[in-house]
Write a structure and sequence with these properties.
- By secondary structure, the protein is mainly alpha-helical.
- It has a domain at about 130-140 and about 145-405: Glycosyltransferase, CATH 1.50.10.10.
- It contains 13 helices and nine strands.
- The protein has helices at about 1-15, 25-50, 90-100, 105-115, 130-145, 150-160, 195-205, 205-220, 260-275, 280-295, 320-335, 340-355, 390-405, and strands at about 65-75, 75-80, 165, 170, 185, 235, 245, 375, 380-385.
- The strands form four sheets. A three-stranded antiparallel beta sheet has the order 5-6-7, with no helix packed on it. A two-stranded antiparallel sheet has the order 1-2. Strands 3-4 form a two-stranded antiparallel ribbon.
- α7 runs parallel beside α9, α9 packs antiparallel against α10 and α9 (about 260-275) packs parallel to α11.
- The radius of gyration is 20 Å and the shape is globular.
- The structure holds glycine.
- The site of glycine (GLY) has 5 residues, from loops.
Amino acid sequence: MKKTILMTMIAVTGIAMNSYAQKVKVNKVFADAEKQTKVMLAEIPKAKATGSAATVGVSPGGAGQELVSPRTLDSGRLKLVSSRDWTSGFFPGQLWFLYEYTGNNEWKTEAEKYTAKIEREKTNGITHDMGFKVYCSFGTGYRLINDAHYKEVIIHSAKTLSTRFNPNTGVIKSWDNRAKWKTPVIIDNMMNLELLFAATQLTGDSSFHKIAVSHANTTMQNHFRSDYSSYHVLDYDSITGKVTQKTTHQGYSNESAWSRGQAWGLYGYTMCYRFTKDEKYLQQAEKIAAFMTKHKNFPKDFVPYYDYDAPGIPNEPRDASAAAVMASALYELSIYSKNGREYKKIANAVVKNLTNSYRSAIGENKGFILLHSTGSKPSNSEVDVPLNYADYYYLEALLRSKKLKEKKPLF
Ligand code: GLY
């Protein structure tokens, strides 16, 4: 039933998909986002009281720790996670975006409260997810309020993340203790480089920047196929630095193109260009954008299926989170690239379609903003659900669209 409704919606909106003229009313969407976030803030204590499970997703640990962030819905129940979960920073980041847009101090107070709950992660060196956790929360907050303590947390976190860099491989190890891999590196890891680049800017210590550049270059060399799609998980030999396996964890198959992974790569190389102005990163981002947007399986509404090679397309789940990450990245890429007009048009269309066809009704879904994301289809986990990172990157994309329109800097 749910699928039928979605397919019908998509068919209907498909007619208007490629008309870029109709603009999203960012004011209205943010007003709605405020309403939904208020719903969520009211739901969090209720979920805590009923003991929603903490340990979902791929980040290890967290059991027994305070539940600090809403992540998704599980059979309609709000699922909260501890700070250790890779997604813990997105809800604080969302609160900062609401503060940024509205200037309302109530959002600042909430953002500070939820950001503080992530601080303990600055010493957690057992995963690579530091950027997602700390940069989306403290980093976004620091950009807005310039708080000296936030700066310290960012620097401390960058030092911890740097301990996962191995000069033999030239990359930051993503996960520990996985039976299938020895030194796994996932394409998602490109997102964590923002924290390292920022730490060099904040300290003048170039070691963070050098690690980020080494990771980006090594990933560019090994993770991509000739069509500029990327593998999800590579395994490295930690002594020789050689790649020993090219595999997937959340995609359809080892040789397929997992949609969110493509979006992480696009965002990652665009961001690397922001910090380095190295043309090869810009070109890489352009090639990834071409792969994503010109692919035969890129849907009419520009919201990717969970994998570009999923065998049952068009009857495969969408991933609104991949669409949101892609849109936000394309807005940034539009200011650097000769193809900027085209990227902006595509990003506008993605945002319009997410807004018109993928949003929750106000007051529903425990306050999540977007529906129809997919966490991990192969393990049948979080399929066709709201996800906090879809909401985070959707709001970021909206803010970027507004800044571009007003000719203001994005950062
Ligand atoms: N970084 C994990 C994911 O994208 O699902």
